[in-house]
Amino acid sequence: MLAQKLHLLRHNVLSFVSSRTGSDLTRRQYDVIVVGGGHAGTEAAAAAARLGAETLLITQKIMTIGALSCNPSLGGVGKGQLVREVDALDGLCGRAGDSAGVHFSILNRSKGPAVWGPRAQLDRERYRQFIQSELLSTPRLTVLEGSVDELLVSQPNPEEPGHHRVTGIRLGNLPQTSHNKLGEFWPIPPDRAGVTESVDGSHPILSSSVVLTTGTFLSGSLFMGQTTSPGGRMGDAQSCAGLSYTLKETLGLRVGRLRTGTPPRIVKESVDLSLAQLQAPDKQPTPFSFLNTHTRCKPEEQLPCYLTHTTPGVERVVRESVHLNCHIQQDAKGPRYCPSIESRVLRFPGRRHQVWLEPEGLTSDLLYPQGLSMTMPPELQLRLLREIPALHRAEIRTPGYGVQYDFVCPTQLTPSLQVKSTQGLFLAGQINGTTGYEEAAAQGLWAGVNAGRTALSLPPMALSRTQSYIGVLIDDLVGRGVTEPYRMFTSRAEFRTYLRPDNADLRLTPRGFEEVGCVTLRRYKKAVSVRDGLQEALMALQSVALSSTRWREKLGNISLSENKSTTLNGLDLLQYKDVSFEMLASAFPECLSQYFEYSQRLKIEAVYRPHCEKQSREMERIRSEESLSLPSDMDYLSLPVSLSQEVREILDRVRPNTLGAATRLPGMTPAGIIHLLNYVLRTGQRNRHTEHRNRSSQKEGEKGQLCASNIPISQ
Amino acid sequence: MMFTISTAFEDLAVCDAETIFALSSGHGRCGVAVVRVSGPASSMVLRNMAGLTQALPPPRTALLRRITDPQSKELLDRGLVLWFKGPHSFTGEDSAEFHIHGGPAVITAVLQALGSLEGVRPAEAGEFTRRAFHAGKLGLTEVEGLGDLIHAETEAQRRQALRQMDGELGRLYQDWSYRLKRCLAHVEAFIDFSEDELIEDGVLNQVDSSVRQLETEIERHLKDERRGERLRTGVQVVIAGATNAGKSSLLNTLCQRPAAIVSPIAGTTRDIVETSLDIGGFPVLLSDTAGLRDSSDSVEREGVRRARQRVEQADLTLVVVDSTQLPPDPQLVAAFLQEHLSTVLPSPEAGMTAASDRVLLVLNKSDLVPEEQRERTEGELRERPGLPPACFLSCSTSTGLEDFLTVLQSRVKTLCGDPLSGAPSLTQARHRAHLQQSVQALNQYHQYRDQDLALAAEGVRLALTHLGRITGRVGAEEILDIIFRDFCIGK
User: Fold this and answer.
1) How far is CA A629 from each of CA A265, A553, B289, rounded to the nearest angstrom?
2) Of A370, A642, A663, the CB nearest to B147
3) Between the N and C ends of chain B, which has fewer C-beta atoms within 10 Å?
4) Nearest to B384 by CA among B346, B335, B315
5) What are the tens digits of pLDDT across the range B88-137?
6) Taking chain B, what is the end-to-end CA distance rounded to the nearest angstrom?
7) Where are stretches of biased composition, namely Basic and acidic residues (chain A) (predicted)?
């Protein structure tokens, strides 16, 4: 029975949709095809489907959809902000984290709410189950197990910029996988289990929008000790040779090479946890998702983490094994902030490094040694581990290994994550040079949104770096490119006092529903009611005004810097460190007590509001520069404006997406910017006039259109 | 490197809430200097500095007033003030003008008084014109001109910044900037990594004391009436060329005294020889430099390095050529000079090309060249595109000196007409404004240090941004570089 289901799934998922549409048996065309089932791919597929696009997700192994390939955790400082934002746009990872978390904590609790980092240790099985069942219940989304051999491209649509156009993919021979227990995670709903049909090996599936989220599988190689083998993850088939060829040779994309790695997994029983320091979770777990008031794991069911440290013996083993370690001798760029234990020891010798022993799940018998990613031969990995007191008799279940993989230089993408030269081709995740689940999920969601919009003939959209970490992430990638795996830090966001984890719903959910279309009505209603509630509460706070003397009388002994006669309202008062909303509400119960549910958010808002107001001018400037888009097919070398040859060459090489990006280019001159601005405004005006004339006769081609509307210029 | 786009271009498309001021007339010997103010606070500025407590004067009407310092009420000057109510002004905003006496002391005092007012700051390069552009006061065809203007102004500022960064003051600012960068990097490291990493204990305590130290130093500097060092004032004219072309003779001829040692031995001048001159009423700082040649002598090599550096910072370069070395065939002279200039001048990326109006060719030792050859060569070189003007001159007989001085004078005059080229008072006002804002921002660090580290870090960031307006911008990547250099971040 199980075998039968397997057969059905692996070869005939295509037929599910046909069973729903009813007309033809096999659907060979989709609005959006997403290749890859990792954090980027799942968010992309779900987002495109939410937008209303018929979406196909193709993955090598259905079983590994939603698998956490590396660390069993989600969120953190900077990354937690991304999770909150993905959730605010109705993505999956926040809710999956709430379902799978077994140890929740808010990092940076003492450093100010803007830089709080919601984080959780995850149960791998629960995470995978949540993602898989979520995808399965998403309308308009079909999942197919297969390997993509080729990207189909043809001549571009001449009315839009680009040299190629995506028309679909060709499936290669399905890999002979040997996984089992599939049905356990992947029940087939009765309405889909209908017609069966076999699919031959080189099957084209058509689509005008394709999202590639190939992770480390693009020309990936695995390293352990002195052995190397092709692949993107241990235990999975290699892939994407044909895809890699299409990207490099057919589309002429510039690619680079990066490396990463993962630590050995340790048998929990073999660890002497009494020699490590216990790290307890928060007493009350804080959910990632704005929709959740509590997490699946009960507070008392949470698992602890353990902290231990490296010893001089660890350093000795690393030094002695360098000659047996191919990975660290390679010159592909690895991250400076998530280095292997080898590079940590070699770069900062003579120090004690932290090692976190993290649970892998409620029922797992493994521990994940965060900070001990390594690529030396397995026997030396064991020797190294045993140099750490708590691990002195540790057993390894699976050894650590390194991965090197190709990434596409992300400056070749637009802010909608589309490849500039290829209409309808979107990239997200590690293929763009990032690292981390959260970074992948954020890009996946946004690529899925734009792939869906393209398929539905809607104009592409960008997120501003003044509005979200996702915007910062994408702007950094497409504007500056990467030289090492890119990870989010709060210090990358110049407006981080505004881009807070607490207000991601207000920043993104209304827009996600009203303009983008990726947010469901349920979430939208919730966000609107929160927004209105907060607004009312802020007004109520402002309406209670007293002199500082009177405040002191009401609230007891608080230190107010203002002199006695100054009148302060409730919002002013809430800025003070010692004043909480609860105190104010007990002083004015009649007008404030109804807003108790917002007390924390109100306190945060009160503290940050004055600073955000100060920054608003700078934010406005960046937004207006971002809104001046430069057409990606602009011929800079012959543009009829006075630009020096050097500036022309810089512009031609980098092809900035917006005037804002152009101003940040090294070598760009202020005069060049003025000329460019002038040209863009002039062309924009001409376009508007043409549009005006054409509006009645035809649908306007919005894409690549110059929108200069919020530049204050009067004629 | 000194002025990135972002600083020079910071208000690209914003309706500005800030009020700006600048010296609009050139420096040098002028009877009247004009200081312009534009922005919403213009009327406040007039009220505060021209004692107009009752009503503002009718728009566009000159009024003679006592101009006083808004804080100390000290009399600065008596001059004309004008009020322009927006949109009927050059920028389309409320504007004001002060016509004051042209002495450097008066100008400096007025500019500093303006900078001390809340919400008022010195203008960035081309900012007045840019505001006019955004207010729709410039036709789109005039924008090409705006580009050139901004280019000229940022170039002038860049050269000036290069000059300053060489000096004592520049080193001081660079040092502050470096220390502030480290402070910020360490706070950021603490925010982004301390939960997972071993960030050494006491990182923040170190930052506390560094920030306090910086505050003290900057405040002391702002109070210091001597301002550390005298900014070199005047148009910077540099004499450059091959060895033994007669550069030092030219310096001596121009300043009419033997300021530099001249000898027939190549490589006599090894260091920079500076002298102040008055050319046609404009202040000029003339520098003689070591002859450019490859030398094995380390002292001379250093001299050559300094010479090249000085050329890069110059407002005007006089390239001296030994006429006897010119090809006898006049038709080949242009190509020869072109080639020669490319060895003397910095690469074109530095914004200086042979055709630029910042170069003059001096063909020295003309007395040693046959008259007929000289005349034919002169004819060949007249208005040659791609070549700067060339003057035949003999430093030993003074033949041709009159003509050369006429050309030089007109160049200096043009350069002085640009109010931004090396006007030290404006630079000082800019620096003061940014330094004051830097100190204010650092206060924010202490204010929030224990309450909210994100807001405390914001203060350091802001302080660095203001300092960066003087020393060059600091980006997020640079901060991350320091973090990864100073800490082992490994998670």
Assistant:
1) 48, 56, 48
2) A642
3) N
4) B335
5) 888 889 999 999 987 777 888 888 888 888 888 888 766 787 787 777 67
6) 34
7) 693-703
pLDDT in tens, A583-619: 999 889 998 999 999 999 999 999 999 888 888 877 8
| Residue carrying structure tokens 């307006």 | B469
- Tokens standing for A591? 């007008």
Q: What are the E-state strand segments in A321-434?
A: 354-359, 366-370, 396-398, 401-408, 422-423, 425-427
For A348-357, give one letter per residue: b (16+ CB within 10 A) or e.
beeeebbbbb
Bond prior to B87 in cis (omega within 30° of 0): yes
Enumerate helices (H) and strands (E) in chain A, giving the number of each.
Answer: 24, 23
Q: Can you name the residues that pair with A367 across neighbouring β-strands? A: A266, A359
d(Cα A489, Cα B191) in Å, to the nearest integer? 9
Q: Which of B9, B147, B451 sits opposite A577 (nearest CB)?
A: B451
Minimal Cα–Cα distance from B49 to chain A, Å? Answer: 27
Cβ(A655)–Cβ(A635) below 8 Å: no
Residue B478 forms contact with A (CB below 8 Å): no
- Write the DSSP symbol of residue A215: G
Q: 3-class secondary structure for B17-55?
A: CCEEEEECCCCCCCCEEEEEEECCCHHHHHHHHCCCCCC
Beta bridge partners of A277: A307
Helices (H), A115-165: 124-136
More confident residue, A623 or B257: A623
Give Cα A255 to chain centroid, integer Å. Answer: 21
CA-closest candidate to residue A49, choices A190, A143, A145: A143
Q: How far is A673 from chain B (nearest CA, A)?
A: 8
Top residue of A489, A561, A578, A608 to mutate, by most chain B CBs within 10 Å, is A489
Of B105, B130, B134, the C-alpha closest to B33 is B105
Listed in sequence order, the residues at least 6 apart from A509 whose beta carbon sits closer than 8 Å to its beta carbon are: A88, A89, A90, A290, A519, A523, A524, A527
Alpha helices in A515-596 (DSSP H): 521-543, 548-555, 570-574, 581-587, 589-592
- Please name which of A382, A387, A402, A243 lies closest in space to residue A335, comparing C-alpha atoms: A402
Global pTM? 0.75
Which among A419, A416, A479 is positioned nearest to A255, based on CA atoms? A419
| B 335-394: CB under 8 A from A | 349
Give the mean pLDDT of A639-656.
81
State the DSSP H helix or E strand holding residue A30, giving kind and residue range, or none if neither: strand A29-35
Give the ipTM.
Answer: 0.79
Q: Both tokens of residue B164?
A: 């300053």
Record: contact A671-B150, CB cut-off 8 A: yes
Tell whether the torsion through CA atoms of A234, A235, A241 and A246 is positive or negative: negative
Closest Cβ–Cβ partner in A77, A347, A715 for B488: A347
Residues A184 and A218 sit within 8 Å (Cβ to Cβ): no
Q: What is the pLDDT of residue B353?
A: 53
Q: Which residues of B touch A489 (CB under 8 A)?
A: 188, 192, 480
Chain B contact set for A625 (CB, 8 A): 12-13
Residues 6+ apart with CB under 8 A from A83: A74, A75, A93, A94, A97, A118, A288, A438, A441
Q: Is the pLDDT of residue A179 over 50?
A: no
| Whole-number Cα distances in Å, B256 to A536, B248, B251, B317 | 80, 12, 8, 20
Q: Are strands A255-262 and A401-408 parallel, antiparallel or unpaired?
A: antiparallel
Q: Look up residue A123 and give its two tokens.
A: 């149960």
Distance CA(A649)–CA(A672), nearest Å, equals 12
* H-run or E-run covering B10: none
